[in-house]
Amino acid sequence: MSAIEISRLIASRQISVYEAVSSHIDQAQRANANINAIIGPRYDEALAQAKEFDRVATIARDQPLFGVPFTVKESIAVQGLPNTYGSYYRRTDIANKHATAVERLLNAGAILIGQTNLSELALWPECANVIYGKTSNPYSPGHTSGGSSGGDAAIVSAGGVPFALGTDGGGSVRIPAAHCGVFGHKPSSKFVPMSGHFPLDRYCSQYPSSQFIARFFSMGPLCRKAEDLLPLLKIISGPDGIDKNINSNFDCNQQLDSLKGIKVYLLADKLHPLLKSVAPNVEQNLRSVASVLEKEGAEIIPCHLPFLADACELWFDIVLTAQNITLSSAVNEDRSLIAEMLYMISGKKRMMLSTLLLLFTEKIATLNKKSYVQFLYIKNKISLQLNAYLDDKSVLLLPTYPTTATKHNRSYISPFEFLYSALFNVLELPATSIPVSFSTDNFPVSIQIAGAHGCDHLPISLACYLEKILGGWKLPTMA
Description:
This is Amidase. This protein is an alpha/beta fold.
């Protein structure tokens, strides 16, 4: 059942808010014992709030998410709750106010039942950290849920909530959504405020370059039903006076009535020499999806876009081009990386190996970093090339990730596969991860559809079409 359906049932008094919230909490608790997705439960508070909502129901029926339960990634600020990013050096941090998107969801009537796990500092495609441990895939405890919003994806997939709020700086909404078989959307830049999360959190927001970096990060929804994506974007989007990038010119009410006239550019090959080739089962499903869309009236155009390899490489320069903000200063106040490695070797690790690798990479890359002007020149050149393909009637169809969910820690062996998704952070474009099938070993197979800037309704509309035809999310048996 979608968040919209739950809201309708509550509004028509077919179910109470308490019934909606308590049934999801029961399911979340059962599933969480196996997956460790919710690391900051608010079950008692949520149930008390549900009872109060039922008492005042006649007053607040106009709220679009009235009584609908949800979760939030722990790195997104919720006033009074931990905001550690899974980092030892932030282990005592408590958020002093809500992130804008959180406040808007709460004002819309949604009820927060808990905070979810993430990769340390939201910077790795697996979900694990030294504070909360690792999150497992609800289809198999031996496999990753993806990162960095892996807790969100896992609990949505397991039926614990109809939707969750995550962040996406390099595929961090879409990769977990793909691994866990749910829908995940990264909005166009200048759409949803990043206020209350890096780089617009209380640590980095004072730096002038934080506004520049925020263009390439997004807050976005993860849902078990595609019909929730656009309504949720409508709620969390729009200016807040803090994130200076945001404008109010987006129309969240558009929906495709037909696929006739829609061009779908199919990208089934690997995008960069460093990346793995697309797995046969993922490639097969890409072509199957193309066939389905063609039958619905879309025009399928196989293509190869070599300039996207440059966009993949450019992702690493996003933070490096900014002045004042470095990973080291944001993470561990420039403490010695050698000391951190010694802590790890001695069994007293304060940092994940993934974070150490990223910090070492930053120090090396800084020696050859691009200037702000160089970065924008290359980025704009790629965008102009892509504009020849993307408009308000065309999309790209490609993998979210080149394989299905991998076993824990495999990302250390193949660390660059996130770039299939991260290139759309660089280009500031909307992209949706869509579950379309299952592999022979019963893991979700997902694909990604990306659109032109401001055309979020296109990939989301196609997600709705594909869900109706192919079935979309299915509850894992172990959940």
